[in-house]
Specification:
single chain; alpha/beta; eight-stranded mixed beta sheet; about 10% strand; globular
Length: about 400
């Protein structure tokens, strides 16, 4: 054990490090200006059907500009502030030396996070179906699509897909009991603060407060940004509908064709003629949420793939977008290509006590939907037990 003098010195250095890590960003500016600004931008709606083609082209460009503005702010200001979570992890693990290196996250989660609010709304709809009550279900669906659908709002038949997901959830018990035990979190918080000398405790409280704000930001800002992006996609889809295009093309081409009736948009090149890869039986990544789980893989490469999700399947994706997390209550485990214990998939997996492995190279190319997987969240190993096309 370090002496009290050494402990004080170390705590002071960690406190300084935490503040230096986010000193270039004003928390007040983010919480008082940027978040309200993003919320307002996300809620901007304009009836598109009454616009001329030329005006629709202008609206697409306007919405794309709004998205680019907030995308840039996100990367320049929000991301550095969100690193407060990582710095707090260093503080917590250095001071507490827990057996579980992810234990610090139990102190950070709060029920006011948008993703948890969204999933509670989903669970309420599933609960009503489960109990045979469908009163005001349409109203709740409208609320969900308006507030939380994000980029998935533009998916064809998104509402029908959401209903399918809710019906799938209704077949299974509520996952609410999987949430982290708030009483144990309170005990850990008390132990963490008590580990500091009394004169250092106020700084420890401030560390925790900053980390919680940082943690909440990692979740909420992505949802707002996703909604702003959905506004762009909505306008683009209206443009595609008017042009009668059955193939993919770029935003630039859509705008050009709307402004010039004689212009034929160029088709996007698929450009992917690479040979299929042969996958090994085991894939290795980083353990991100403890536990072991098995199930059939559901590889999500496109937003529409998520609406086919079935209870007990393994979510396999490039990265869990916060706008995807409404399907997490159905997951048995999560596998992501992107790495790190503080990416969104790892965070949401721990909140639902779901095993998770991140940083699995080429996961979405090497795993096929229907493959039977065992995911070891302790060692970071994904085992392909049986291929989807393999005969018994």
């Amino acid at each position: 054990m370090p002496s009290e003098k050494e402990f004080k010195k170390r705590a002071q250095l960690l406190y300084i490090q935490l503040h230096q890590g986010i000193r270039t960003v004003s928390r007040r500016k983010i919480e008082k200006e940027h978040i309200p600004g993003m919320t307002k931008a996300a809620g901007m709606e304009k009836e598109l059907s009454g616009l001329s083609n030329a005006n629709l082209a202008g609206e697409i460009e306007f919405r794309a500009g709004v998205y680019q503005k907030w995308h840039d702010i996100y990367w320049e200001e929000f991301i550095p502030f969100a690193h407060g979570v990582r710095l707090f992890a260093q503080v917590y693990n250095d001071v507490m030396k827990p057996r579980d290196p992810f234990e610090f996250m139990d102190l950070l989660a709060r029920g006011d996070m948008l993703s948890l609010q969204r999933n509670r709304l989903l669970e309420e709809m599933a609960k009503r179906l489960r109990s045979g009550r469908d009163d005001d279900l349409q109203g709740l669906l409208d609320e969900f699509m308006d507030k939380y659908a994000g980029t998935y709002k533009s998916v064809l038949s998104a509402r029908e897909g959401l209903i399918d997901l809710i019906q799938e959830m209704a077949k299974n018990p509520s996952p609410q009991k999987k949430y982290m035990d708030t009483s144990s979190s309170a005990i850990r918080e008390e132990s963490f603060l008590a580990s500091f000398p009394e004169e250092q405790r106020a700084k420890a409280v401030e560390m925790l407060d900053l980390a919680r704000a940082s943690y909440r930001l990692r979740d909420d800002d992505n949802i707002y940004l996703g909604q702003i992006e959905a506004n762009v996609s909505e306008a683009e889809q209206e443009g595609l509908r008017r042009l009668g295009l059955k193939y993919k093309t770029s935003r630039k081409e859509i705008v050009k064709a709307l402004k010039d009736p004689g212009y034929i948009p160029k088709k996007d090149k698929d450009g992917d003629s690479r040979p299929a890869k042969v996958a090994p039986r085991q894939l290795v990544g980083q353990p991100a949420s403890m536990g072991i789980g098995s199930g059939a893989a559901r590889v999500v490469k496109d937003p529409a793939d998520l609406f086919s999700f079935k209870a007990g399947e393994v979510l396999v994706c490039d990265a869990v977008d916060p706008n995807m997390t409404f399907a997490v209550p159905l997951c048995s485990t999560i596998v992501e290509r992107r790495g790190g214990m503080l990416i969104h998939g790892a965070i949401i997996a721990r909140e639902y006590a779901i095993p998770c492995v991140t940083g699995v190279p080429e996961a979405v190319e090497l795993i096929e939907t229907g493959d039977i997987l065992t995911v070891d969240g302790y060692q970071g190993i994904v085992t392909i037990e049986k291929r989807a096309l393999q005969k018994n």
